[in-house]
Amino acid sequence: MDLSFLLAGSGKSMTSFFSLSFLILFLPACIILYSVVPKAWKKYILLLSSLAFYWLISGVLVVFLLLTTTSIFLLGLWLDKQQTRMKEKLKALPKEERKAAKPRYIRRQRGVVLLCVLLQIGFLLVVKYTGFLLKNFNALFSVCGSSFRFSIPRFLMPLGISFFSLQAVSYVVDVYHGLIKADRNFFRMALFMSFFPQIVEGPICRYSQTAEQLWKAAPIQYQNLTYGLQRILYGMLKKMVIADRLNPMIEAIFDNANTFDGGVIAFGAVCYTIQLYMDFSGSMDAVAGVAQIFGVTMPENFQRPFFSRSISEFWKRWHISLGAWFRDYIFYPITTAKRMKNLTSSARKKLGNHFGPLVAGSIALFCVWFCNGLWHGAAWSFIFFGMYHFVLILTGNMITPASKRVLAKLHIKSESFGYRVFQMIRTTLLVIIGELFFRAQGIKAGFSLLRRIFTGFSFTGMNEETMKVLGVDWQDLLIVGITLIMIFTVSVMNERGVCLRDTLAKKKIVLRWCVLYALAFYIIIFGAYGFGYLPVDPMYAQF
Q1: Could you tell me if 278 and 238 are in contact, meaning their C-beta atoms sit under 8 angstroms apart?
Q2: Which of 79, 352, 522, 542 has the greatest number of C-beta atoms within 10 Å?
Q3: Interval 318-360: pLDDT, tens
Q4: In whole angstroms, what is the distance from residue 308 CA to residue 425 CA?
Q5: Which of 331, 314, 405 lies closest to 367, judged by CA?
Q6: Which long-range contacts (CB under 8 A, 24 or more apart) does 17-23 make?
């Protein structure tokens, strides 16, 4: 086996938790080492393993992760010191003077939070978006007839920076709001920031969710080990059998879209939506599974989003940790600001109780979705993707009263099975259109693909000749279809509150192991790997 990945920055294959280097070498080594050391050392082994993992996949860029950790550790202590001093000073003042003095101390604390945002988000903006910004300035100069051009710098972007930067900001803001106490243990903070399962694709954890669990470093329990391995296997099923098998076909369709009719493009858009979900949720299954082995419960990042009845609900079920971050640190601060409260009060008087609050809410919603689109990448297509969902959610909020009146007149019960299915299908179709623009090579290309779907749609395009061009056959699609039915069945059970793992755990040991071996062999036989398949990096790692 090639061990060159053990060199700094050479272990990029381990960005996929389903790679052999991760599953066969790195993870077992961590588990064994973690198990044999005394309890007092387990947390340090977990920390060293996490830093080693990041060093292997990023090399010297691990310095940026350490600098981020150090900066928020110090800023948290600084905030804590200011808060303690404020309490002492205010306590010493007469009661009538406290109210006037308090804002002065609050402004200083906000200054610390602002410094954190400038350091963390500022650095993220520089390394990720400078090139995009300067390219647009150069295009503007060209349109204006100027020969001046900015030179475009190239930055090394630390892997996972879009995730751990937001995690860092959430820690300092939560300290400011008094939701958590500033951590005085640098190593605990470092483990919270660098825990190796989540560093590549998240989820974006809050300090209160995982820090104490990680530092507790509980011994590995049999149930945690088996449940964790089951979750990893389920993630492998999603990624290797579905997402990776669909990848060559999807790349062929979107890279050569002009050669296919609207039916093939529509099929590609559906398959890309499936691929993205299976790839990302499968990776999150692996993250949760690895964490569970070490006794850590990670926040769930997906809750069966395609059962959603609206776009708003969809985004509460998809990439939950990112949506929650935008909600708590952008949407709520904007809507609860004094000026926005005044705006809401004024709008409510003029527009009524439904439309009045939507004025301030729409401003906050716009900021959320502009940032959401930009977070995914430095391109106008990603910003358009954000604005597309902003318009859909805002429209949905605005027409809610009218929708209820129409349903009442048509005598349609909103909770009836048929109407709920209609809502799910409608939401899924809107999501697929959004993902079409997300995957297309630019906004113009996205509209061209969408136009072709509506003007050149045909059911005959997906024939044997097209399949050969796409590099797939009917057997591939049959395997994907059967696997989708399996996952859909599990999802329906979960949606109804049935935990398949708990149900399986109550069965006889022979049946339990037969099911697990069957799943493992299914992945080995039908997984997309080996000759003819290029390894597919986790899709969200690039964001």
Answers
A1: yes
A2: 79
A3: 999 999 999 999 999 999 988 988 888 888 888 888 888 888 8
A4: 9
A5: 331
A6: 17/197, 17/232, 17/235, 17/283, 17/286, 17/287, 17/290, 17/538, 18/235, 18/236, 18/239, 18/240, 18/286, 19/535, 23/232
